[in-house]
Amino acid sequence: MSKLEQTRSYAKSAGGILVSEVEEAFVEYGESAFAEELLYPTDTLAQLEEFQAARPFYETHGEKQVAAGYYKDVIRYREHIAPIARTLLG
Question: By CB neighbour count within 10 A (0-12 exposed, 13-18 middle, 19+ buried), where does 63 fall?
Answer without folding.
Answer: middle
